């Protein structure tokens, strides 16, 4: 590794250096993480998600030998927005060979924050209104004749307690979701043992499976490849999938967890691990599947609330996987059950300096 490359890698924003043919001459570690398909030596025009207007600005900077600044919107696993600063570099002894240095400032968190703020008010006001209305009704009843009836008083206090738990779970899930969304443009860089992470999630879900009378089976390939990620976040995503499967499987049903190296034609189109959670539930209508990861979307609202669902579990899973540059696929057959599969990219081998 050259001193120049080490210097670029020490800078915590994506930097790409292009030669006069708009081929990648250098790219620091942050750039390679932010743009997984970027490779040294490749023509920038081969990156299909970088629009022609962006390429035109770069060509103009080369011909005019002037700095430029523009906004780039990419659409990989999710849409990201960058403020790109373009500088021309010309060596004193090679005036005809101009290169471009591109610095990318990720504006996605700001854009996401604005969108989240407006969505938050609309969604949360609707979801909290229901339990608050119920609690208000119970209080009014207890202030009337029910206050002198021990059985009625115990019943309404129990119902109020359940509504409070529901609101607490809702707030907890909202906070979890907002934290993940705010960071999803920055991929984690910690190397992660997936076998340990999966077993952690399975152990956490075991007590719920026993309580619901469901069986939990595991088929985990030993020594799975290493991934890059946050262990607690990925464990949370898997726990959400397991709890969902347990809650919606039929009585005495079996929830099966399988984990293995994904085939070459997997949705990520790169080396990956697939973790599948299969239930034996009623299945999900095909028309509902595309909306399952939307916030507060429920196929069966009454059943979701009966099992303590907030309508945010799968949204949290989706955004955790997006942050890890992974993806969630859902397959379902009515009357047989559903399979939720998380695909995670395998970490590149560690190189010794």
UniProtKB/TrEMBL annotation:
<dbReference type="GO" id="GO:0004721">
    <property type="term" value="F:phosphoprotein phosphatase activity"/>
</dbReference>
<dbReference type="InterPro" id="IPR004358">
    <property type="entry name" value="Sig_transdc_His_kin-like_C"/>
</dbReference>
<dbReference type="GO" id="GO:0016036">
    <property type="term" value="P:cellular response to phosphate starvation"/>
</dbReference>
<dbReference type="GO" id="GO:0000155">
    <property type="term" value="F:phosphorelay sensor kinase activity"/>
</dbReference>
<protein>
    <recommendedName>
        <fullName>histidine kinase</fullName>
        <ecNumber>2.7.13.3</ecNumber>
    </recommendedName>
</protein>
<dbReference type="InterPro" id="IPR005467">
    <property type="entry name" value="His_kinase_dom"/>
</dbReference>
<feature type="domain" description="Histidine kinase">
    <location>
        <begin position="123"/>
        <end position="348"/>
    </location>
</feature>
<dbReference type="InterPro" id="IPR003594">
    <property type="entry name" value="HATPase_dom"/>
</dbReference>
<dbReference type="InterPro" id="IPR003661">
    <property type="entry name" value="HisK_dim/P_dom"/>
</dbReference>
<dbReference type="GO" id="GO:0005886">
    <property type="term" value="C:plasma membrane"/>
</dbReference>
<dbReference type="InterPro" id="IPR036097">
    <property type="entry name" value="HisK_dim/P_sf"/>
</dbReference>
<dbReference type="InterPro" id="IPR036890">
    <property type="entry name" value="HATPase_C_sf"/>
</dbReference>
<dbReference type="InterPro" id="IPR050351">
    <property type="entry name" value="BphY/WalK/GraS-like"/>
</dbReference>
<keyword id="KW-0808">Transferase</keyword>
<keyword id="KW-0418">Kinase</keyword>
<keyword id="KW-0597">Phosphoprotein</keyword>
<keyword id="KW-0902">Two-component regulatory system</keyword>
<keyword id="KW-0472">Membrane</keyword>
<dbReference type="Pfam" id="PF00512">
    <property type="entry name" value="HisKA"/>
</dbReference>
<dbReference type="Pfam" id="PF02518">
    <property type="entry name" value="HATPase_c"/>
</dbReference>
């Amino acid at each position: 590794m050259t001193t120049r490359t080490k210097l670029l890698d020490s800078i915590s924003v994506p930097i790409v250096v292009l030669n006069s043919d708009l081929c990648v001459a250098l790219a620091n570690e942050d750039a390679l993480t932010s743009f997984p398909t970027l490779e040294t030596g490749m023509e920038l025009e081969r990156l299909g998600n970088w629009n022609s207007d962006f390429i035109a600005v770069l060509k103009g900077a080369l011909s005019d030998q002037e700095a430029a600044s523009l906004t780039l919107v990419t659409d990989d696993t999710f849409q990201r927005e960058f403020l790109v600063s373009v500088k021309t570099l010309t060596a004193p002894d090679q005036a005809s060979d101009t290169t471009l240095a591109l610095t990318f400032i990720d504006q996605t968190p700001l854009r996401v924050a604005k969108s989240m703020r407006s969505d938050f008010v609309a969604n949360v006001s609707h979801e909290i209104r229901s339990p608050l209305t119920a609690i208000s009704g119970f209080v009014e009843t207890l202030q009337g004749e029910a206050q002198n009836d021990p059985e009625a008083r115990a019943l309404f206090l129990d119902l109020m307690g359940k509504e409070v738990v529901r609101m607490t779970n809702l707030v907890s899930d909202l906070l979890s979701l907002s934290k993940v969304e705010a960071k999803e443009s920055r991929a984690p860089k910690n190397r992660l043992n997936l076998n340990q992470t999966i077993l952690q999630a399975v152990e956490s879900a075991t007590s719920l499976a026993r309580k619901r009378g469901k069986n939990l089976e595991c088929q985990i390939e030993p020594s799975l490849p290493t991934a890059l990620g946050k262990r607690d976040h990925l464990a949370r995503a898997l726990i959400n999938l397991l709890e969902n499967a347990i809650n919606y499987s039929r009585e005495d049903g079996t929830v099966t967890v399988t984990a293995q190296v994904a085939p070459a034609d997997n949705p990520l189109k790169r080396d990956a691990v697939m973790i599948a959670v299969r239930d034996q539930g009623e299945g999900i209508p095909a028309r509902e599947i595309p909306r399952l990861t939307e916030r507060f979307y429920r196929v069966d609202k009454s059943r979701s609330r009966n099992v303590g669902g907030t309508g945010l579990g799968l949204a949290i899973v989706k955004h955790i996987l997006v942050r890890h540059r992974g993806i969630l696929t859902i397959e379902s057959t009515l009357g047989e059950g559903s399979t939720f599969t998380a695909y995670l990219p395998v970490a590149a081998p560690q190189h010794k300096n």
